[in-house]
Amino acid sequence: VTTYQPSELMKLAMVLVIAQQIEYIERDGALTFKRAAIIIGSFLLPLGLVFLQKDIGQAMVFIFVFMVTLFVGGINKWFLLSLIGAGMLALPFVWKFGMNDARRGRLLSFIDPEKYLDYSYQLRRTVTAIGSGQLTGEGLGNGTMNNGKMIPVKMSDSIFAVIGEETGFIGCVFVILLMTILLARMIHISFRARETFGKCVAAGIFAMFAFNIIENIGMNIGIMPITGLPLPFISKGGSSMVTNFMAIGVLLSISMRKQNGFFTD
Questions:
Q1: Per residue in 108-155, pLDDT tens?
Q2: What is the distance between the alpha carbons of residues 102 and 167, in angstroms, rounded to a whole number?
Q3: CA–CA gap between residue 36 and residue 42 (Å, rounded)
Q4: Under 8 Å CB-to-CB from 4, ≥6 apart: which residues?
Q5: Model's pTM, two decimal places?
């Protein structure tokens, strides 16, 4: 059965709506109640639906993308600070009532894996797999833990652990380098965009990719909580792959409309 995860597409849709509203605000010279309501609504609606699904990882992506898009768009600082303050006040309630013990344990397990043994199994496996790869890895398709099915969710969440085991430190650095180049180009496109709309959209897409990349790699090496986010263009997942390609298409469109060429400064 082929399914699609709507939250993936909603991230891109949210960026487009907010960017359009920011451009209207810049044109009108004022942040009106209508514009503020549309911005907040386009954020809270998908965020609320994601929370109902108990998908904390996607919720974190929505929050990060939302804040980066507003910041780059130069939104009224008091409006931005008010949103940050409201979010901080909501955190204790989300922690208490929005998550069960299992999800809280998964978020805390990266801090002290030994204390949360029931929730750090995936973390301990991924770290062991990456460490066993050493400098050059065990060879593509020859990973002991990979072939032994000892890496949980190895096609999506833990794909970086498979890369580490089979290609070693060199392979991991190569993947990180490719991702860094991709993110750098996104930043470049955002800076060179002709209109505010393009600048904000490029920044939002950058935030979407950056959070997934940092979170996925981080949770595999034990410096970020395990949230189940995929590594763009590498993890298995049709929903995220389709959305990522759509986002890249939007970025290319913005890049073509820049004042300077794509490879010029």
A1: 787 887 777 778 888 889 999 999 999 999 999 899 998 988 998 888
A2: 32
A3: 10
A4: 238, 239, 242
A5: 0.90
